[in-house]
Design brief:
Helix Hairpins; alpha/beta; 5 strands; elongated; 292 residues; 5-stranded mixed β-sheet
Amino acid sequence: MPSTRDIRRRIRSVKNTAQITKAMQMVASSKMRKAQLAALAGRPYAQQMNSMLADATAKAGDFTHPLMESRSGHRTAVILVSTDKGLCGALNSNLFREAGKLATESTVFVCAGKKGAQFITRTRRKLVAEFTYKDAPLFSEARALSRFVRELFLKGEVDRVDVLFTDFVSTLVQKPEWRTLLPVGVIKGVQAGVGPGESPAVLQNSGMEFQFEPTAQQVLGELLPHALNFEIYQILLEAKASEHSSRMVAMKNATDNAKQLIKDLTLEYNKLRQANITKELLEITTAQMALG
């Protein structure tokens, strides 16, 4: 049975831990708000770009582009967007569970985030590149990542490129999501809150008509790489908003659990202290009775 000194030591230790988790919760809360606003602000632009791409595709006729080439091979590159730090609940675990389902012999990984790279190395999967991105992701970071996977695809080293990231739904809900990046194929409404089951016609019937100069084919050829750059940029924003939201919730739960543990330890300490006092009183009374 622990002594009162041991319990006091545990209470002091838990209080110190609660102070740390509370501070981390406040920091994550501040970063979370900025990241959420950035992710939400990028969605209308992504939706408008997707609508323009759909309209250009409809007017381009038999337009072909190397990024739209569909291949029969099974070599896949997966962009795994994780975090650089831990203490964010089950965010990374859910991602890694999905990544672990892929065949190792036909899949290579491009990681954005240190935790993802560590997982790929630990599980002896093939890691071809690792990228980092800041708390406020930069478009240049997304462009570098997009350029790398485009080169893999255009050189024929892989037949398709998928992205596995955490989609931001709300502060309490973040879910792993797969998205096919290459080949582009038919422009589908999968960005900026547009349901993945919606057809391109949903985007084309937006009530707006675009005029393309010089031609829809040339505009589409120039716009496709930029669209891929921005899609990855938006994915990084969504992943960062998910990370800070999950970390804030995890630190809040840790703080609440620490406070409850302090209450339980304090109650145990008071009970033990009261038992010791009662025992000492009984010993004094017994001694007095024995003396006469």
